[in-house]
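User: Could you go from structure to sequence for me? I need the amino acid at each position, not a summary. Structure tokens:
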């Protein structure tokens, strides 16, 4: 008799938890409707972790932030630095490197591989023509999206390169 009561109690708890859980589609809609980015992210994390998502109460949904709190969020250092961290120059010497060509070779795809006097080896990305000769001084400078350009002061032509060694 006691075993039967324990089994019924355990099953009823399972059904209550299943009934209280929100279906996945509805939980995603609740998260998508959330206006606050941090709460929305927390909501999606809760779904991914398998936790139940609760509907926001009316006080949470309509409680506006105080102007001081909004100003603190808007003027945070992270917000001011967003998007310009790659444009800041830490050191002017790191933006361009002057090198002397030691040797040249082309691979079967007609991509240039250059060894410089300082021991660095750079390979051309793509197969555009670039006039270069041994003993010439060239520069390698940083370009967009963490790429590099090989060029010289005699011409405006550059070619995108990647460092091999």
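Assistant: Here is the amino acid at each position, in order:
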């Amino acid at each position: 008799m006691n075993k039967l009561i324990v089994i019924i109690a355990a099953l009823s708890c399972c059904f209550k938890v299943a009934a209280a859980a929100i279906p996945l589609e509805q939980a995603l809609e609740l998260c998508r409707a959330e206006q606050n980015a941090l709460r929305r992210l927390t909501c999606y994390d809760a779904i991914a972790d398998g936790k139940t998502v609760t509907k926001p109460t009316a006080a949470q949904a309509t409680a506006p932030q105080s102007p001081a709190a909004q100003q603190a969020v808007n003027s945070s250092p992270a917000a001011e630095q967003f998007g310009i961290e790659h444009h800041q120059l830490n050191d002017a010497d790191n933006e361009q490197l002057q090198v002397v060509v030691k040797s040249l070779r082309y691979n079967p795809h007609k991509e240039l591989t250059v060894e410089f006097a300082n021991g660095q080896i750079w390979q051309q990305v793509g197969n555009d023509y670039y006039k270069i000769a041994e003993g010439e001084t060239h520069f390698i400078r940083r370009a967009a999206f963490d790429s590099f350009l090989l060029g010289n002061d005699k011409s405006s032509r550059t070619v995108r390169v990647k460092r091999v060694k």
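One structural detail worth keeping in mind: The chain has two domains: 2-64, 92-163.
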